[in-house]
Structure formats: structure tokens, C-alpha cells
Amino acid sequence: MASGSFILWLHGLGDSGPANEPIKSLFTSPQFANTRWSFPSAPSQPVTCNYGALMPSWFDIHEIPVTANSPVDESSLLKAVQSVHSLIDKELAAGIDPKNVFLCGFSQGGALTLASVLLYPKTLGGGAVFSGWVPFNSSSIIERITPEAKRTPILWSHGIADGTVLFEAGQAGPPFLQHVGMNCEFKAYPGLAHSLNSQELQHLESWIKSRLQSSS
Question: Where do the H-state alpha helices sit in 49-197?
């Protein structure tokens, strides 16, 4: 039987993986003793909303602030999804139960988390989106979501005072997921701007803990 778990954290635009590693120190429950964490860094590439400047970015973003109706760049998104899927495949090949694989991401990383979970062919432990948005809208992508993927639980957290990825962009997530046949736990944080807070991460720890599969 597979043992251990895997948590992949995807950072936001212009950030790096190592800068986010302190997050794992908050996961102190014994259930995380056999958890492997991964904090990859996005490649450096031109970003349209920043006038083509090169910066760490998972896929192109056309405008900031991101609204519920912002244009999406699906081709660069799908390339990033492939990279995330290869990281998951590697863990499954090493014997991790797919239901003990959790994807989490902030902002652009949250949008990539959502797309990666929806387009992965198996049911995973969960996907946690922080201050993210739905980064695609074409029916050709929606049709690729398998019945197995639709069983992966989604946690969506968003600050009501977010001026970078507007709260309305986050609010558009649950109806979109309902439309494709998925459930989502949505948590709004009053006063929170475009950042993470300790409340969100504490809830994430308990949310993942309640979904970890026993190795016995």
C-alpha cells in the first residue's frame, strides 16, 4: 500500500518556490511527518500585463487587476499544466497514492492549481486555490475534464479586499465548478488584500489532514 503524501505549492507571478518554503513549517501535525513538499519556481518569460517584462511566470497574463471577465491565454496555460502533471506523475510512479497528492497555489499559482487538478486524469487528494481565478473558458478544455478529476475536492480562499485578483474573479470559481459538475468549498476573508494569512493556512492544514488516506 502507498504511504506518505505529496504537497505541491505553486507560487504567484514574479515570486519563487524557495521564498514560499516557510509555509511547510506551519504543518506541524504528525500526519505530515511523511509528507514530501515541492516548491518549484516558474520559468522566466515575458508577461503581457507588465509590458512584456521578463519575470518568473507560469503562463501569460494579459491584464492586472484580474477580473471575472479578463482574457485568458490558454496555450501558455496548457504548457504549464503539462509541467505540473509531470511532477505528479513522478510522485505516483514512486508509489504515492493519488488521493494523497495535494496541489496548492497562490494567485497565478492558484489559477494553475485549478487547471492542473481539473485536467489531471485521476482523482487527487485535493486542490487549494488562494486568491486565484479560472484561467480558461473554452469548451474544448472543459470537455477534457474526466469523471475522475471531477471527484477531486477544491478549496477556494479569497480576500474580499483583493485589488490584484479581484474578489469577483474568485467568486466566479464555484459557479464555474458547479457547471462542470464539481463541488467547491469557498471561503471569503474580509479585509484581506492580495496575500495569504495564517487563518487560510491553518484551515488548509486541517482541510488536507481530513483528506489524507491511511497507509494501513
Answer: 74-93, 108-119, 139-142, 167-171, 173-180
